[in-house]
Amino acid sequence: MTTHTPHVDVHSGAHTGTTNYLNNTSGFMSWAGTLDHKRIGLMYLIGVSMAFLAGGIFALLVRLHLWSPDGALFTNEAYNQIFTLHGAFMVFLFVIPAIPASLGNMVLPLMLGAKDVALPRLNLLSFYLWVTGAALAMYSILAGGFDTGWTFYAPYSLYTNQAVISIGLGIFILGFSSIFTGLNFIVTTHKLRAPGLTWFRMPLFVWAIYATSILQVLATPVLGITVALVALERTYHIGIFDPRLGGDPVLFEHFFWFYSHPAVYIMVLPAFGIISECVSVHSRKPLFGYKMIAFSSLAIAIISFLVWGHHMFTSGQSTYAMFAFSFLTFFVAIPTAIKEFSWVATVWKGSIDLNSPMLYTLAFLIIFAIGGLTGVILGVLNVDIHLHDTYYVVAHFHYVMMGSISLAFFAGLHHWWPKMFGVMYNESLAKLACAIIFIGFNATFIPQFIMGSRGMPRRYAEYAAEYQPFHQASTIGAMILGCGVALMFGYLLASLFAGKKAMQNQWGGVTLDWMTPTPPPLENFHQTPVWRGEVYDYSTLDLRSTQTPVS
Amino acid sequence: MSSHPDTAHAHAAHAHAAHGHGEGHHHVASAGLFLKVLIALLFLTGITVGASRVDFGSANMLIAMLIACVKASLVIAIFMHVWWDTAINKIMFLGSFLFLSLLFAFTLADQATRSWDGPISVQRAPVAEQWHHPALADKKP
Amino acid sequence: MSHDGHHSIVIPAPGPEFVPHTVAHHFDSPVQEFQACKLGFWLFLATEILLFGGLFAAYFYFHEAYPETFRLGGQQLNWKLGAVNTTVLLLSSWTMAMGVRSAQTSQKKATILFCWLTVLGAAIFMGIKFVEYKAKYEHGFLPLFGGFEVADWFKDTHHVMKDVPHGHMFFAIYFTMTAIHGLHVLIGAGLILWIIKGASKGRFHAGYYLPVDLVGLYWHLVDLIWIFLFPLLYLVP
User: Fold this and answer.
1) Is residue C18 part of a domain?
2) Structural domain includes residue C28
3) Between helices A204-236 and C168-200, what is the axis angle to 10°?
4) So what's the pLDDT on residue C25?
5) C4 found inside a domain
6) Is A280 in contact with A360 (CB distance < 8 Å)?
7) Residue A29 in domain
């Protein structure tokens, strides 16, 4: 039988047998040397999940330490290292590559009707660069750790007696991994779209990944040169960032945030893409404001290059630059709000299926609204002077990075899990885990908003006793969150061995990723598909013909 | 149903043999043009050196950079074939200069305006004299 | 049709001294392959622009902060050697452009010749750079041997920079920029040698000259950056 929908010519289906990308070849080298985007995506998925678990363990250690005002577990120096490791692992090894390199790699060529990404060898290279960067991060821990915070601010990073050069080299290499992934996706989107799949018929996940890729290509090189200069400072004391030698640490911050502010959108734009897919498929409605969402991704990408100075309101930067940066920061809220409203409008009056991907998506919509709006508050220049480097900032960016991005990542993981592996996880446990994660997350970070607004500074190993109730509430929340995440990984892994067979098109999606056999074969489509009709057009899908079990 | 791929491929290969890369839109610039550009570039290098001998005051930097930009434009347009390249390649490469200009604009604007509203001077970062790392304690005279 | 039964697209060789090119299996046509790889390379060059851009931003930042230091520092460099190197790089950029053109027109011998001339240009450039670095080392300006203090490398043997603030700053910028540029010259020369190897086997011709084209673009970028470095460092405005 072939699955055939009226508006897409795709030859797929069960008649080719059970060969798919997971089992068409076997042996170590068939994975280590693979050029298949799906296998590379899967290897990335394993890698970033391990980085997430490591970063999560560091986070729990930080929270446990803060149980008592004097610090419960570590020396102050060890605490500095642990929160730095938490930040560096989560940012550079998990959040930046998480969605584009794993789910993006897996799904983007499928959505475009392509056999692979445009440059498969470069894709494999960027995976090994990621592995090298991760190895250097591990080496840096063994070589004594690093205590600079994930931001590596000069002049402290120029003088601290720790493994800054090796982690700097690691970040340089991870940067190139990220650049090559982005470059590959831009080329793939431009050159490998199926005939008939015009720009405004592409799924919004592709638009989001495309906007992300532009940021990866244009912003990351500046981070590369910045860490290279830090390494030169540490070895030769050339003096560019060193105030003792006539250099300027504020210049470091300019360079660093020229990358790291767009990097925030490198992290969050792919999450937006996943949410766009999930709200549409699980509400069975075309996206409200498709073009507005598509353009808002590009608008966010461009505006993100104009606002980096809002991280530097207390750095000694010029007041006039701060006016400009604060003013421009508010413009980010416009395209972001367009997205949020469009998603809500899509869900409205849809035939909502409250399955686990949709629950994660709805949790995202709530948490992202809080994360986004507290960001607007922090963009106000004079308010930020008070809140800068407090737990309010910590809570804000965790609402965006952990709450929004990780929840979107989980939503995507649950959404495409049946596609990737042909099996379904335990849906009841999935709903339970989603509830635990949502409760645990809010319990962790709402107290941080409160104590932050009351002046609790971030990164302190010890604190005044009046903050203890908030810290303890936060620590309990973090433990709940940790249990939820552990449960999620548990049932996902269990499903690989004992999961029920998934459907060919588990959710009744109408984008090309759901038109291939499940799991997809080596080159995705036996013949380049031809796209007809509009995107997210659910009226043409005959559910009965697509919801056959995986053979 | 799309056309059979074998036929399409055979056709592409055939067309290719006749016209170069299939579509025949790959521009081969004339050797004479390359030579003219080379001479222009060498001439402009002379101008660069000559202009550096004349003091135009605060316009010195602007003039030097303008000449360099003309030279760079020649290299980009002719030697790198951007003049004949596809629109998307032009946008991607030239767009990078746009984003670079943002880095320049905000960073240098910060520096230029930092001393407007107070005694903090650009020449000396505010912590230059006071800052002292404990690790340096025994190294200082 | 089974997925492993697809037919490869082969671009035939224009003559007996050339070899055909097989289009990578995931592309539908040679045009798609050419355009995809070229777009990817332009994006890579865009990252190079941003990478060097950070250094240029640092240059302008400190040129603004310490104008006398930069003017006096620039006078310590030998502008004649800088001008010769500029000329060498411009000539090598021309030979590279001609090399690409020769590949486009299936002139195997000319492709190889022009590529060798470009490598020669790279060698002369690096030779002159070595002479310059050596002189700077003798003047105590070269940050080659690190230490805990700037004085460990910035010795200023002839005390020419003693009257300007932070005299090492110009040389820090100069050596960082020219060293990273020099690294690109070496990588470019290596890539051109790889092109020469492929061209000798007849891999590049009118039907398929993509690698020559891309390496050529890389080499022009190296030239492009030097066009700005020469006036900024040797003739400090």
Assistant:
1) no
2) no
3) 120
4) 87
5) no
6) no
7) no
pLDDT digits 0-9 by tens, A374-385: 999 999 999 999
Whether chain A has a CB inside 8 Å of the CB on B87: the answer is: no
Q: Is residue A523 less than 8 Å (CB to CB) from chain B?
A: no
pTM of the model: 0.91
β-pair partners for A503: A549
Subunit contact A155:B131, Cβ cutoff 8 A:
yes
In a domain, A543, yes or no: no
Cβ <8 Å between A319 and B99: no
Q: Do C223 and B34 touch (CB under 8 A)?
A: no
Residue A546 lies in a domain: no
pLDDT at B118: 64
Q: Does B49 contact C28 at a Cβ distance shorter than 8 Å?
A: no
The tokens of C7 are what? 């037919």
C149: containing domain: 37-234
- Read off the amino acid at residue C45: L
* pLDDT at position A190: 96
What is the DSSP code (8-state) at residue A9? Answer: E
C window 176-195, beta carbon within 8 A of A: 176, 180
* Domain containing residue C73: CATH number: 1.20.120.80
- What percentage of chain A carries pLDDT values higher than 70? 95
CA-to-CA distance for A325 and B66, rounded, in angstroms? 29
Residue to test with chain C: of B3, B28, B93, B139, most C Cβ within 10 A: B93
pLDDT by 10-residue block (mean), chain C, 237 residues:
59 92 90 95 96 96 93 94 97 97 95 98 97 89 73 81 89 94 98 97 95 97 97 92
The answer to whether B102 contacts A305, with C-beta atoms less than 8 Å apart, is yes
pLDDT (0 to 100) of residue C146: 60
Helices (H), C66-107: 67-76, 79-104
Return the CATH number at A112. 1.20.210.10
CA–CA dist A540, A65 (Å, integer)? 56
Q: Does B99 touch chain A (CB under 8 A)?
A: yes
A32, A323, B22 from A185: Cα distances, Å: 21, 36, 25
ipTM of the complex: 0.92
| Structural domain containing residue A457 | 38-538
The domain total for chain A is: 1
User: Domains in chain C: how many in total?
Assistant: 1
